[in-house]
Amino acid sequence: MVAPQFPKPDAFDGRSGIPIAGEPDGAPHAAGPSSSRLRQWGKRGSLSSLLNRVEAFLNARPFERMPWLAVAMLAGIGAWFVLPGAAEWLLALGICGVIAGVVATHAPDGSHALVRSAAIGLATMFAVGLALIWARSELVGTQPIGGPVVAPITATVLEREEQPSRNRVRLLIATRDPREERTIRARINIKAEDDRPFLREGANIAVRARLTPPTHPVLPGAYDFARVAWFDGVAATGSALDPPRLLTPGEGGDAASEAEKGAGLGAWRRDLARHVRERLSTVAGIDPAAVAIGATLASGDRGAIDEISAQAMRDAGLAHLLSISGLHVGAVVAIAWFVVMRIGGLFPAVALRWRLPILAGAVGAGAALGYTLLTGAALPTIRACIASFLVLFALSIGRQALSLRLIAIAAMTIMFFWPEAVVGPSFQFSFAAVVAIVAFHNSAGMQDFLARREEGRGWWRPVVALFLTGLVVEACLSPLVLFHFHRTGVFGPFANLVAIPLTTALVMPLLGLSLTLDLIGLGGPVWMATGWALQALIEIAFLASGSENSVILRAQPPLWSILLFAAGFFWCALWSGGIRLYGLIPMGTGVVMLAMQPAPDLMIAAEGRHVAIADEGGRIYLLRDRAGFTRDALLEQAGVDPDVGNYAKLRDIPGAECNRAFCRFEMRQRRIMVSQRRATVDYRAMVTACADSDIVIAEWKLPGACRPRILKADRALLTRRGGMTYDFESGAIAYARNPRDGHGWRRSGAAAQAMK
Questions:
Q1: What is the CA radius of gyration of the chain?
Q2: Fewer CB atoms near the end CB (10 Å): N or C, the chain?
Q3: 8-12, 40-44, 168-172, 623-627 — which one is most confidently predicted on average?
């Protein structure tokens, strides 16, 4: 009897462990698993081990996962601004869909559920953010007018903003495009001497005005007002050339009635600001800046703050006190909460019948909403109001008042309705500060430091905690401030240590009490105390910003440096434990890049009329040194203070040769020729001079035969590419405009430039 033949142990399929059928013993395939299959097992084993670790990591952090959805939504919105056009946006959406689809169909046995939900959630929120900002741009984006125009227009006043520090009034009007006869919204400035009582919301006026499209960035990375105007629905800006004439008044009846009554909340806000200024002006010994800050805190009207005081507040790290946001809304809510809880507790009938936390939360929410409307309902104030509602709701139901999940909900709410706010400094500063504060105070070390002790924690611990919080916030905000404004204060934590308690515990309550007592005519003494507190605030600002080394100035850093910092910041803030320390690596790298960014060697503004060039010692030479927006923008891009910086005119360059039309000079082994003004130039001499130059810059179109060795920056190039910078060492050129850019304000900007 022949014994049956069974496969040997090594004749097994490496994937299933099932014997291979139909292959005789000793067949080549039965010799064992191939080396490629062994490698495949190793890869799968490593991947499975990695997924198991990630799954365990996420499982141990149930309360730290949700904020990452807000970060993914923010990243999607940011990607829309960075990617150039519809093809890239669709590709990004497609990649998100593929990731979500592949992960959703992977591991049907239910393993790695948290990893799969995280991948699906992050990809989905990224796509939601990108789709939201794309849809909003298409829905609310406003095409600018075709080019500069001077014409008589009829308009309806929509908003009025008084700016006494600049001796003007700013109006937002609805009118018709003088060229295309379409209805547009425009922003015009009217000189203070041309202001009229009838210039209120709802009035129909006639005026001769100069209108221009919203300006594009002067240089790569500079402020882009065209983008802001696109989302705000503003098609033109300009100024009135003659005093306006009234056609028909607003809803108040005749002109006198309109002047007295104004139109709704806007007039009430202006009257409140005027009343605060009048009352504080009677207090002896306080500066006009303190008076203006009082009006700002009461009504949100910043028009009376002079530029010197505003800059001092920024350099001292106190600019956040001038923007009605979380600090101010929080103070109003805290006062309302405290009053209801204290007064309600004095009456047993109220305390026993009503749940005081719920009643206090309702009153606090009403106070937050009223203060938001009263101060103009700007986006930072709306953001703070939404956050206060969430905090009050959490307090009312006995939950933690402020957490990262709560901040994430508030951020996603803002991004859902105003996704364009993500790229603005206000959104970034507000949420970065709040996230830093909450993450810092939720850390184990800080909670242990502030924990109650049997011997008492002492008065000094909260003071030290406040100072450390200021340091953390300043460290997190300084890179953002440098990125947006090219300067930041050094003594911000010290100034905030005094200014924040002064504002929340003294200035805001005194200001509210003064206004309340004015209703019965008893506010005089309290106004004196309010004025002195405001004067102390402005003195702190000038003290912190007045020393020689109190301000750091840096050139415009690259975008990727701030993105590195942001990635590390979120990693440090949103995780707990030792793993969060890995975020310090990208944060530190981004900060080093910010600090070491050199100034551009050559800067050419978008229209070619302003040029700045740096010598080897860092001194800046300007084509036009007259004070103005463009000149200041060029100096700030180079990290130079426009008020006290080291700069001179191009004609002061050693060896420079200048005539009516051009200046020619040599700088760092480059021969450069720059036009000074339009003039008749001999054609052959022009062509010869171009051939003898490395770089030629002109605000008009140069002839085709003008061929410098490196760069011809004339009107033809600047119209297509906008402002530019040039690096002498590497020869790299950066442009403000990408010809492939599909964003609405870029397309319309190129068309407007071409029509000039």
A1: 32
A2: N
A3: 168-172
Nearest to 702 by CA among 686, 726, 720, 724: 686
Spatial distance between the Cα atoms of 195 and 160, rounded to a whole number of angstroms: 11
CA–CA dist 593, 608 (Å, integer): 29
- Cα(25)–Cα(29) distance, rounded to whole angstroms? 10
Separation CA 304–CA 131 (nearest Å): 40
Alpha helix locations (H) across 575-644? 584-596, 629-637
CA distance 697 to 676: 9
* Mean pLDDT of all residues in 121-129: 96
Compute CA distances 232 → 33, 253, 379, 543, whole Å.
66, 30, 12, 37
pLDDT tens track for 502-530: 888 899 889 989 998 998 888 888 999 99
- Nearest 5°: the CA angle 248, 251, 252 is 95
Distance of alpha carbon 655 from alpha carbon 665, whole angstroms: 6
User: With 80 as the cut, is the pLDDT of residue 62 above it?
Assistant: no
Name the band, by pLDDT with cuts 50, 70 and 90, for residue 170: very high
Could you give all domains of the chain from N- to C-terminal order, each with its CATH number?
37-140 (no CATH), 149-262 (2.40.50), 602-721 (no CATH)
DSSP class of residue 624 equals: -
Residue length of the chain: 756
Reference 637, options 522, 523, 484; nearest CA is 484
Please report the beta strands in 404-539, taking only residues with DSSP state E, as ranges in sequence order. Answer: 487-489
Contact residues for 418 (Cβ-Cβ < 8 A; gap 6+)? 379
Phi/psi at 402 (5° precision): -140, 120
* Structural tokens at position 157: 């006043």
CB-based burial of residue 519 (10 Å sphere; 0-12 exposed, 13-18 middle, 19+ buried)? exposed
CB 603, CB 725: distance < 8 Å: yes
**Which amino acid type is present at position 164?**
P
DSSP one-letter string for 172-195 = EEEEE-TTT--EEEEEEEEEGGG-
Sign, CA torsion 538/541/544/545: negative
